Amino acid sequence: MRRRQFLHLWGVLTGTADARTITRRWATQNPIIEAGVPSGNQNALRERLAGLVRTQREVQDWLAGRAFPFGKYDSELGFLHRDRRFKEGIEGSICTYTYDKSGARRTIAHASKPCRINTYGNSFTSCEQVSDGETWQEVVAAFIGEPVRNYGIGGYSVYQAYLRMKREESVHPAQYIIFNIFDDDHYRNQISWQVIRYGKNWQHFQPPLPYIVANPATGQFVEMKNPCPTPESLYNLCNLDWVYQTFKDDFVLKLRLAQEADKHPDPTIAQLIQALAAEQGTPTLVNSNADDLVKAADSLYTRSGIFASMRVVDQIERFATAHKKKVLYVLSYGSGNVAKRLRGEKRFDQSFVEFLGSHKLPYVDLLEAHAADYAQFQCGLEDYFRRYYVPAHYNPRGNVFCAYAMLNKLVSMLGPKPAPYSGSYDCSAGRCST
């Protein structure tokens, strides 16, 4: 393809204004852009979105709490958890999830005492696949003799967790924050509609979300609000024309087409990804081979996702400084990335870890904690993971491992020190002395 033709294709497909399109109104005001999109790409994008359209009954049932029991609608964050019982625990047990009036998961250990630690993040924060009382927050609370609130939500991005932190800290403030970042959270930053990436399932409605438009090459970092900001607006998800106009330029949608190229071969997808790569500052020739498309898409996704997380952390730190709070970052990983580390493979998020280090931010790296732990065993990876994972999340023993890994760093930040770590113990008096 000649340079001139390539630049024209790039401008038509991913021009800055068009890439930011999130409403049908904008598209109707710019018909020349829509008319210039190659029909092959239009067809591929529309076909993919057609399979994601919701029915009115699905929307009604979710809003009424009759279906999709994993979460409930939230106008700002997309969704929050709700009380539920799922058979997904260790040895096929039923897990019980309950939440208080603030939306935090039920606090058990030292619940009547004042709380100075709030935790935010994802499913490794909310502790999916274990029951109330088996979370790492409860283990930490037992260690330090004071409660630890759990505001984690399964499926949240770094950006969503930051937004929830700002909301909850205005109502239920804490001096100390544990901000948990799971390996997939970097990728979730740019998800505008969960169903685009994850598809449909009976547990979760996979709603539209607040998200980030990011470009490491230009430094672009734009915060985008939930595309469906009212319950009534969710019914737009039943209209294919609205869905197409709203999400046709979605970054993650284009990457998903490339990642699924083996299922839906389409030569125009290579052009789409090639244009994205040029826009993101990594121009490269992308062919239609499915494996190459997946590699190109994954590389783009990782680079932009981690860049977005860095910028969110910048915002977290500004918020913490303004409100005189201290933040401990905890990096969590699924068994897949832990296995890669234990096999000696390069970690995908090295640049993010270096970012935390260069900014002198306190953090706990559970990937390295697992590497040190595994060195003490003489067993295969499968047996090791069975010890800690359910398999998608930590089992109760895994949450104890997580709590132990962060304990020293957390206690060193707290002031005054929690009771078990304050002063020396007078055996004759049976009490602590300072």
Structural overview:
The chain is α/β, with parallel strands linked by helices. It has one domain: SGNH hydrolase (Rossmann fold). It has helices spanning 3-14, 16-19, 24-29, 31-36, 39-50, 56-64, 123-126, 136-144, 158-169, 185-188, 194-198, 240-247, 251-259, 268-279, 290-322, 335-342, 350-358, 366-374, 381-388, 396-413, and strands at 71-74, 78-81, 84-87, 94-97, 117-120, 149-150, 176-182, 211-215, 220-224, 326-332, 363-365, 424-426, 431-433. The longest helix has 33 residues, at 290-322. The chain is globular, with a radius of gyration of 23 Å.
Quick summary:
This protein is an alpha/beta fold. Helix content is 45%, strand content 13%.
Query: CA-to-CA gap between the ends?
Result: 76 Å
Report the CATH topology name. Rossmann fold
Percent of residues in beta strands?
5-15%
Mean pLDDT: 89
List the topology elements:
Elements: H1 3-14, H2 16-19, H3 24-29, H4 31-36, H5 39-50, H6 56-64, E1 71-74, E2 78-81, E3 84-87, E4 94-97, E5 117-120, H7 123-126, H8 136-144, E6 149-150, H9 158-169, E7 176-182, H10 185-188, H11 194-198, E8 211-215, E9 220-224, H12 240-247, H13 251-259, H14 268-279, H15 290-322, E10 326-332, H16 335-342, H17 350-358, E11 363-365, H18 366-374, H19 381-388, H20 396-413, E12 424-426, E13 431-433
Parallel strand pairs: 5-6, 5-7, 7-10, 10-11
Antiparallel strand pairs: 1-2, 3-4, 8-9, 12-13
Helix pairs in contact: 1-14, 5-12, 8-20, 9-15, 13-14, 13-15, 14-15, 15-17, 16-18
